[in-house]
């Protein structure tokens, strides 16, 4: 009988501990989401200031180089939104959504390629980006196929 009581008390302690850990995870996730919203708002403000300044001060014919910087800033905001979606998805389901994480990674690599300066980039860096895109794309395809099979 004493062993049974000890087991019940031990299980309760473990359950309490896990409950405390889950509460901490939720608090950290909420704090991260608030900070990410602040980052997104500041990034939008930065984009607005940059756009306004560049549109009215860039001499004619130089806007194409500025355009890549603008695309980079837009993609930064999209990446931040995807990270926020990852955090809020975790808050909703308490599970990391691998498909979202891989999608976010693909956007980040696409951003890197869009703003890439080919004159300053070595061939090995370009090969590395290609391998990263291939690996992420295959991973994304596997996850999508796996998720579609689970739904049917």
Please supply descriptive tags for the structure shown above.
4 helices, extended, 0% strand, mainly alpha, 152 residues
Provide a concise account of the structure shown.
With 152 residues, the protein is mostly helical.
Describe this structure in words.
This protein has 152 residues and is mainly alpha-helical. 88% of the residues lie in helices and 0% in strands. The protein has four helices and no strands. The mean pLDDT is 84.
How many distinct beta strands? 0
Which bin fits the share of residues in helices?
over 70%
The H-and-E topology, N to C, reads as: HHHH
Structural class: mainly alpha
Helix count, per DSSP? 4
Could you list the spans in which at least 5 consecutive residues all have pLDDT below 50?
none
What is the beta-strand fraction?
under 5%
Terminal CA distance reads 48 Å
- What oligomerization state is this entry in? single chain
Task: Present the secondary structure layout.
Elements: H1 2-57, H2 63-93, H3 98-114, H4 123-151
Helix pairs in contact: 1-2, 2-3, 3-4
